[in-house]
Amino acid sequence: MDNFQIETAQNVSIQQNAAGIGERILAYLIDLLIIIAYFIVSIFILAALDVDGGDQWAFWLILGLPPFLYFLLWETFWDGKTPGKATLKIKVVKLDGSRPAFSNYLIRWLLRLLDITFASGGVAVVTILLKGTGQRLGDMAAGTTVISEKQRVRFHQTILVDIPEGYVPTYPQVTVFSDAEIRKIKSIYNDSKRYANHNVILELSKKMGNIMEVTPQEKPLQFVAKVIEDYNYYTQKL
Fold it and tell me: pLDDT for 23-35, tens place per residue?
């Protein structure tokens, strides 16, 4: 599982988990089974309706068009997911973590021919394994990737800290951060304390103060700890 950094609107770096190659292959196989099932059911229905002869154009249109557009339509209208991707809890996103536009989905779909169809998936597998952001050629051209929505964090990587009874918060502005951003802040804070990287904590404190538009009342180390505690108070205690 590869991780890569994205920048939030508040210029705080957080990590995204790129979907594993096994997850992507399994999702594709699930989608392929759905397409095969559609072919079989459609053939039986069209045969029962006696669609042949002069109706061959309609026959091949009904049989071929939905599978041909399968990935493009599902990903466009279901937030970057297909049934296979949804089953494995993975989805297509832009590299900054935002939802792709139709043009992004279209580019990566068009390059499926080169990545997957003509090369039997070989090009896609090699490219994904070589790229740290989990991109095949279509993703690189479209500026997208496939991420896992599964939560893979240990307790020390969460935002949780102990809040004593009678705790009095100082910075209500902490609500400008998201859970993911606070989790990343806590990770940087803990690592910097462990390795005595005081300059990192100083820069982190300045950045957080600017985002929150406050002047810290404590030293950088205490300020970052206070923000983490205040965030827990406002999001969990109230």
Answer: 999 999 999 999 9
Which tops the pLDDT comparison, 9 or 166? Answer: 166
Cα angle value 93/20/111 (rounded, 5°): 55
Q: Give exposure, 64-82, as e/b (b: 16+ Cβ within 10 Å).
A: eeebeebbbebbbeeebbb
Residue showing tokens 């096994």: 22
Whole-prediction pTM: 0.59
Residue 209: half-sphere exposure toward Cβ, Cα within 13 Å: 17
More reliable by pLDDT, 171 or 129: 171
Please give the Cα distance from 74 to 105 (Å, whole number): 10
> How large is the average pLDDT for residues 111-134?
80
Distance between CA atoms of 226 and 174, rounded to whole angstroms? 10
Identify the residue with better confidence: 207 or 163: 207
**Measured distance CA(189)–CA(152) in Å, rounded:** 20
How many CA atoms within 13 Å lie on the side-chain side of 50?
Answer: 0
| In contact, 134 and 124? CB cutoff 8 Å | no
Residue 52 has pLDDT above 90, yes or no: no
**13/4 Cα distance (integer angstroms):** 10
| The two three-digit tokens of residue 107, written as one number | 């580019």
Element (DSSP H or E) covering residue 43? helix 21-48
Cα–Cα distance for residue pair 32/60, rounded to 1 Å: 19
Q: Which two tokens stand for residue 30?
A: 């699930």
